[in-house]
Each structure stands twice: as structure tokens, then as C-alpha cells.
Specification:
Layout (H helix, E strand, L loop, with lengths): L3 H8 L1 H8 L2 H7 L5 H24 L17 H12 L3 H4 L4 H16 L4 H13 L1 H13 L18 H16 L5 H30 L4 H8 L17
Helix pairs in contact: 1-11, 2-11, 3-11, 4-5, 4-7, 4-11, 7-11, 8-11
Bound molecules: protoporphyrin IX containing FE (HEM).
Family: Belongs to the heme oxygenase family.
Organism: Pseudanabaena yagii GIHE-NHR1
InterPro entries: Haem_Oase, Haem_Oase-like, Haem_Oase-like_multi-hlx, Haem_oxygenase_CS
Length: 243
């Protein structure tokens, strides 16, 4: 057994805390969500997930990557619905990658060609996050943007995992799949390192959106909202955490 699930959790705790403590996320968690930066975030996630999911399909027969391919996690189509909602029918011609979003996509393509096992790290970082903290973010977006029913947060919805319990069970199954991979210590270390890099790539995207958030908030309020750091959700004692 590789214990990869625990190695990933423990090996990325500091990165997780840093991701929660970006100015963008601190504002988000306090209910400050603005349409312009939020839709840009979704647009960049669309580019990232389209690439990640295409590369996972390409490597479905790979002895490691194939074991972590779960079609029920796929986000591409859900994001398409949200983008049509926020940008309108012509969303495809409206969305532009941020510099950080392009760098993220480029990294996925690069490892897919040179070292596909590392794609596992990116799947873990995004999907486990979406099934965990992402679920709390959904409620924040809905109330901040006062969204009409059924629109604007499809990204956070998993049709085949509709309840909290189904998500929890799936996360257990995902962790078991990680643990069952036949990977040596050197590969485990490289996957954990890549997961930390995946967190950095995510942080860079939201850091690039910070200016859009600042543009709509009073500087003093921005300072108040962002000055204090949170204790990271995966660093808190007394696991398991509930979202
Ligand atoms: C897990 C919250 C952002 C990736 C968790 C868990 C919580 C949480 C409570 C624990 C769930 C559990 O034990 O089942 C949050 C909050 C965020 C946030 C409030 C607000 C900003 C992020 C970001 C990423 C991320 C930006 C990556 C892009 C993950 C991953 C896990 C996780 C990979 C799984 C850890 C594991 O059990 O191995 N998050 N998160 N999170 N989160 Fe986040």
C-alpha cells in the first residue's frame, strides 16, 4: 500500500493553508464575491478542467492514471453551463485565459506528455477540493450574487454525488484508489511535490484576479478583510473536517 492519500493530505497542508489565505479567497469566504472576477475564475477553471479531463481520457489505459479516472467527477460540461449563464451564448469567443491560467494549462499538457503519473496530483488537488471546501463556496456565491434558482453554480454540483454522504463516500473511494496505486517511494514524492505545485498554480490564478476584487472594494475594507490569516482547514486538529 502506498499511503498516497495521507501523504498527499499531510504533504500539502501548508499549501492548502496558503490557498485559503490569498486575498481573493479571504474576501470570498467573507461573502465578497463579484461577478467580474468570479466569471473570470470560472473561465480559467474551464480551460484547466478541459485540459485535465482530455489528458485523463488520453491516458485511460495507463497503469496509474487509468485507476484515478472517474467520469463522475468531470467538470467541463458543468462549467460550460455556468459560462453560458455569466457571459451569454457567445461565451466561447469571450473568454480569455489569464497569464496564470495559461501557465496552468501548459503545465498539464507538459506532464501529460512527459510524466503522465503526475496528472494524479492535479486530479487530487482540484477534485478533492471541489468535493470538500468547494461545497461551502457554492453557498457563499449563491447568496452573494443572489442567483436565480439552478443557475450560476453548476460547477459545484456533482449529479452523481448529490448528497453530502455520497460525496463523503466517494472521497473515501478516491483515497482508497490512491492508496492502491503501485507506486514506489520516489514516485510518491514526485506526486506530492506536483500537488504542491498544483496549489501554487491555483494560487497564481486567484492572485491575478486580486486587482479585480480590489477595484470594487473600499481600500480600508479590503485591508480589514485580508489582514488576518485563517488556520488552514486541513491543518486543524481533530479531523475529519465536515465539508
Ligand atoms: C480539503 C476547505 C480551498 C484543495 C478541504 C477540507 C476543507 C477544505 C474543510 C477538508 C475536507 C475533508 O477532510 O473531507 C477549504 C476552504 C477553502 C479551500 C474553506 C477556501 C478557500 C481549497 C483550494 C484548493 C483546495 C483553493 C485547491 C485548489 C483541497 C484538497 C482537499 C481539501 C485537495 C483534500 C485534502 C485531503 O483530505 O486529502 N478543504 N478549502 N481547497 N481541499 Fe480545500
Amino acid at each position: 500500500m502506498s499511503h498516497l492519500a495521507n501523504r498527499l493530505r499531510e504533504g500539502t497542508q501548508k499549501s492548502h493553508t496558503a490557498a485559503e489565505n490569498t486575498a481573493f479567497m479571504k474576501c470570498f469566504l467573507k461573502g465578497i464575491v463579484e461577478t467580474v472576477p468570479f466569471r473570470k475564475l470560472l473561465a480559467n477553471l474551464y480551460l484547466v478542467y478541459s485540459t485535465l479531463e482530455e489528458e485523463f481520457r488520453r491516458h485511460q489505459q495507463h497503469h496509474i492514471v487509468g485507476k484515478l479516472y472517474f467520469q463522475e467527477l468531470n467538470r467541463q460540461q458543468n462549467l460550460e453551463q455556468d459560462l453560458a449563464f455569466y457571459y451569454g451564448e457567445n461565451w466561447r469567443s469571450e473568454i480569455v485565459p489569464l497569464k496564470a491560467g495559461q501557465a496552468y494549462v501548459d503545465r498539464l499538457k507538459e506532464i501529460s506528455n512527459t510524466d503522465p503519473a503526475l496528472l494524479i496530483a492535479h486530479s487530487y488537488t482540484r477534485y478533492m477540493g471541489d468535493l470538500s471546501g468547494g461545497q461551502a463556496l457554492k453557498h457563499i456565491v449563491r447568496s452573494a450574487l443572489d442567483l436565480p434558482d439552478e443557475h450560476g453554480t453548476t460547477f459545484y454540483e456533482f449529479d452523481q454525488l448529490p448528497t453530502l454522504e455520497a460525496k463523503r463516500d466517494f472521497k473515501d473511494k478516491y483515497r482508497q484508489a490512491l492508496d492502491s496505486l503501485e507506486v514506489d517511494e520516489e514516485t510518491v514524492e514526485r506526486i506530492v511535490e506536483e500537488a504542491n505545485y498544483a496549489f501554487t498554480l491555483n494560487r497564481n490564478v486567484v492572485d491575478e484576479l486580486e486587482a479585480d476584487v480590489r477595484a470594487v472594494i473600499d481600500p480600508h475594507v479590503f485591508e480589514l478583510l485580508t489582514k488576518q490569516d485563517r488556520v488552514g482547514s486541513t491543518e486543524r486538529r481533530g479531523h475529519p473536517v465536515t465539508v
